[in-house]
């Protein structure tokens, strides 16, 4: 992929498209004239970092209602081991990841990341994962999906990088995968980059010493970004999405009360206690239908519930909601709303709650990868089964609803790929065996 032409693009569009391209050329274009961008440094006091790699929330900014804000830019790096796991390989991976922790503050302004391992990675070992880990191979989950074996992600590992600062993402990737790999899509000469250091920290080991970068997916989340990224299949030319909307479908979400605590999604027992599991689906969005066929009233009813629409609970993009999607009372009406002809996405999905709280922690973000409007649905949960239960509640095959057209947002999304990973606690994050000490 060649570098985008800045001509005619806003700064936001240009920067987002540079993250999508990746590599040293994109990094130097991103820095532009401004090669003294200050990104907060990390730490040598590794014990100060959380035991769970997925423990991000208390390091993130939150709004006045306590809703945590996910970073604005994301990269998913899918990796294949280029040999077998060895102790030397483990040391290399650990040293590479520590380089990033030294280089960047664990925050929105710095960089957060997780590394997870797939069922296929663990298949190479004779011993199996302990019972305390629920990590099935990915599979089709709804009658609406038409996935072949090739559509199920069986890469060995996945690194999810997230930051508000595109320069931090691009630099961290270069540090981990080196110019050869990261540059493979770019024809620009690197400038302003020094691949031996990352935010002033010397790079001694890279993930690419042990892994090959097999696939790279990117995306964005936050006010202003959907309106700045409209040049992809599935996005209407002129769509009335408010500037404040953080996602393509136009509504705020992931409120304090529609996300579980990190403790609820953390594995409690066995050698991987303190870790979690991750599900990632690659979803295509039919936004032209969403924005052109339907009125705002129908969009609110389909996304939240018919009651939300009647009582005007949501507003233009969710500004009337504070720390909750206010679904508690409408969950009970899910069946009767379905019989009445329309049911909302949040309403029926909230049927999977336990003790009043959802059981999956969502960290999904929009994308225009492959020049198609989509969403990388990333969630972490104690067991993959928690994701499956939640997805079943969302699919709602049990509901008395005649047509997919009025069944939440199902009509507007199609799943293209799925993958499951185990995110070990930090102490076992480097090429773990199924039974680490
Ligand atoms: C394009 C795809 C999707 C969009 C735009 C979307 C958007 C939303 C919105 C706006 C809400 C209500 C606000 C909130 O509380 O966050 C919501 C709730 C939720 N969604 Fe989605 N969603 C999508 C796909 C999915 C998928 C694939 C799942 C997986 C099961 C999912 C699970 C949930 C859950 C668990 C809730 C919270 C329900 C509760 O309050 O208990 N969503 N989503």
TrEMBL record:
Compositional bias per record (Basic and acidic residues), positions renumbered to this chain? 308-323
**UniProt-annotated stretches for the region Disordered:** 308-327, 334-353
Cleavable signal peptide = none
Pfam families under this entry?
Answer: DUF7405
Protein name, please? Monomeric isocitrate dehydrogenase
Q: Which organism is it from?
A: Natranaeroarchaeum sulfidigenes
Taxonomic lineage: Archaea, Methanobacteriati, Methanobacteriota, Stenosarchaea group, Halobacteria
Q: Which gene encodes it?
A: icdM
